[in-house]
Design goal:
236 residues, 2 domains, 25% strand, 6 helices, alpha/beta, Glucose Oxidase, domain 1, 8-stranded mixed sheet, 3-stranded parallel sheet
Length: 236
């Protein structure tokens, strides 16, 4: 199965999980992914009440500390090309934006009222970025933002490269990777393994339930918890 084969039910099953549960499941599905493929430094989820989002990556890099080296028309056309790229995607998308201004990422914001509404109209669910967000109270309805910085100005913000490899808080993302993100951060779902991830998450939940029931039971002690851990490992 490829990610292109995923249907609305598959995406909903992933969305029902939180991101730590997806990371746990990936450890079973692809054990070698235990140490990479997820964010490893703190990002701010400005709308935690929206829960998880699941979508295909649309990647772009930006800068804001100085003007674009292109003239105004060329800069505009680069932004338009980016919007075309987002609009042409199959399935729900998440904009993955790497701010290239080393040491000053988030100096100017790519995200605010206008850009969030534009992206929502193009089928984008939200963004994961090491850059900044502003206009928090005026973002498009239902548009999730997980960002490195909250800042008031867009400064000289402009796209640099489109449809490229990006790195956000330690997570390397390729265009069209399947992304799962929530208030904990984000993770790249292994290609072609989404349904396996959901199945593995269910197995982990059933195993953990045995231990949790034992830990919460009246009279719980170290021996009862040890026995529960042995029993948990036998759940399949």
């Amino acid at each position: 199965m490829t990610d292109e084969d995923l249907n609305a039910e598959d995406l909903a099953a992933l969305r029902a999980l939180d991101t730590p549960s997806v990371c746990n499941a990936i450890e079973i599905v692809e054990p070698e992914r235990r140490s990479y493929g997820f964010t490893t430094s703190t990002l701010q989820c400005v709308r935690p009440e929206l829960g998880s989002m699941v979508g295909f990556a649309r990647t772009v890099t930006v800068r804001s500390t100085r003007p674009s080296t292109l003239d105004a028309e060329a800069t505009r056309q680069t932004r338009f090309a980016y919007y075309d790229y987002v609009a042409d995607a199959k399935g729900p998308t998440i904009s993955i934006v790497q701010d290239l201004d080393d040491g000053q990422a988030g100096f100017g914001s790519f995200w605010g009222e206008v850009n969030s509404n534009i992206h929502k109209s193009l089928g984008c669910l939200g963004t994961v970025t090491n850059g900044s967000v502003r206009d928090i109270d005026m973002l498009a309805d239902g548009f999730q933002v997980i960002a490195g910085v909250i800042a008031p100005s867009h400064a000289f913000i402009h796209p640099v490269d489109i449809d490229c490899t990006v790195s956000i808080a330690g997570m390397v993302v390729e265009s069209h990777d399947l992304i799962h993100a929530d208030r904990h951060g984000a993770v790249v779902v292994p290609r072609g393994k989404a349904r396996e991830v959901v199945e593995a998450a269910d197995l982990i939940a059933r195993r953990e339930a045995v231990i949790l029931d034992a830990a919460k039971a009246p009279g719980a002690n170290v021996d009862s918890i040890k026995q529960a851990m042995i029993a948990s490992a036998k759940v399949n």
